[in-house]
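task queued by scheduler; priority normal; single chain, no ligands, no partner chains; default sampling; output format set to structure tokens
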Amino acid sequence: MPNSNIVLIGMPASGKSTLGVQLAKWLSMGFIDTDLLVQARAGESMQAFQDANGMEAYQTLECETVKSVVCENCVIATGGSAIYCDGAMNHLKSMAKIIFLDVPMDEIRQRIGDTSQRGVVIRPDMNLDDLYAERRPLYLKHADLAIDCSNKPQDQLLQEIRASA
């Protein structure tokens, strides 16, 4: 069944996994977290894999993993860097509505903590502001819908996503 799924994209710490689990419960859907699939394929945490193999190897693994996802009636939370892989995003778009959780940079900064411990795919010459500036246009490009998440409680966000899904 085409487009029977919902994909959540956004920056690290934007709430993709947290909201995704709740949304799946609300809508009686399955839930897939592509970060967990990548970690299972890697056999170690995202950060450990990146530290050992580099950012490019991680992105290749993530891209191939996301392209392998096949499901119906699921909420899919992607890793924040999945949007760098057009093949993965086109695959997801073919089977889902893509929703960008648009969280302002100041909220991301408060939520994220230490990027070096979180598995964030970020070049050594970049800071979090640079990453946000680079990724936000890509999220908007790939999204069917952007949800403004600024200072909104989880229940309100779930209702907005549900109403638009």
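post-processing summary
- The CA atoms of residues 105 and 129 lie 7 Å apart.
- The radius of gyration is 15 Å.
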